[in-house]
Amino acid sequence: QVQLVESGGGLVQAGGSLRLSCAPSRIYFRINAMGWYRQAPGKQRELVATITSSGTPNFADSVKGRFTISRDNARNTVYLQMNSLKPEDTAVYYCNVKSSYSEYWGQGTQVTVSS
Prior knowledge:
The chain is mostly beta strands. It is built from no helices and eleven strands.
């Protein structure tokens, strides 16, 4: 069973920064896309950012210019650098990893931005 280990969430004031990271506990498949999604209370889970195996990023309009996504293929790790955080960024952030045949989700890490 593949587990995605997430870290880096927490409480920060508006305008602050956080960095999330995620890596599978074990790997026996080739990773294609990696990314982050988030779910705020009472809302549906939404895409935040993804990155392909070749490093091409994709961002939700709401985070463009503030968030960056990167990956270390040698460590099978994906990072989400979040700058200029806003209270509306408050949510549980979930890591997502896709192989050719399956996708995997992390357990979620809470990000809370106070005003």
